[in-house]
Design a protein that fits this description.
This protein has helices at about 5-15, 60-65, 70-80, 105-120, 155-185, and strands at about 25-30, 35-45, 45-55, 80-90, 95-100, 190-195, 195-200, 205-210. The protein has about 210 residues and is α+β, with helices and mostly antiparallel strands.
Length: about 210
């Protein structure tokens, strides 16, 4: 189900976060450890994206804890500081996402295990089962940073400027959209005037678009 919904997941993530996924389904190979590879679902400026479909009752934080080691592995191999976990909750038809930062100490623990396992492969020995320690993610463990000097500062500045200039316009748009729809009589399926046309679909939903 995760593979089947990946494109939808990415589109949902872009709409919810305002971020643009520039690369999809890419593979990274660590330059110094060619046995370490990461198949990421997407790339964002300064971050990677991991998409999941979840049919249970776990929260986004619980899923971030569950996939913590996978995301740390991806950040190590691909040289990124953040991994966005994007989840479609199938039972509830909703989407949530969460940013998980790179954890240097956790990566060092992971490398100790991974290097030992790879050596077992080279020595033709049976692998040793390692159960990762449970990780608890909280806001107290997350960073606070100034965007100055970050490798995505330029894109941030552009987007922040647009956000500031269009915030009021977006609010005005929502108010106008609601007002127009409340004015339409229940027995009207199409109405136009003053540059816009409103059409009613078979399920009763109203759609506003510019008149041609």
């Amino acid at each position: 189900m995760g593979n089947a919904t990946e494109d939808l997941n990415i589109t949902w993530f872009e709409n919810q976060s305002g971020l643009i996924v520039t690369g999809r389904s890419g593979q990274y190979i660590h330059p110094d450890k060619d046995y370490m590879r990461a198949n990421v679902d997407g790339k964002i400026s300064g971050a990677v994206l991991e998409c999941k479909y979840h049919g249970g009752n776990s929260t986004i934080v619980e899923l971030a804890e569950k996939y913590f080691w996978q995301m740390q592995h991806y950040m190590y191999v691909a040289y990124f500081e953040t991994c966005y976990l994007s989840v479609i909750f199938g039972h509830y038809s909703r989407h949530e996402y969460m940013a998980v930062p790179r954890d240097k100490d956790a990566i060092n623990k992971w490398l100790t295990v991974a290097d030992a396992e790879w050596q077992n492969v080279l020595d033709n020995k049976d692998p040793v089962s390692h159960i990762p320690e449970k990780v608890t993610i909280s806001l107290d463990n997350m960073r606070e940073i100034d965007v100055a000097g970050q490798n995505f500062e330029g894109e941030w500045e552009t987007a922040a400027t647009v956000w500031a200039h269009t915030k009021q316009h977006a609010a005005d748009f929502k108010v106008a959209d609601k007002s127009i729809k409340t004015l339409i009589p229940d027995d009207v399926k199409k109405i136009w005037g003053h540059g816009i046309t409103v059409s009613r679909s078979k399920n009763g939903a109203l759609r506003i678009k510019e008149s041609k």
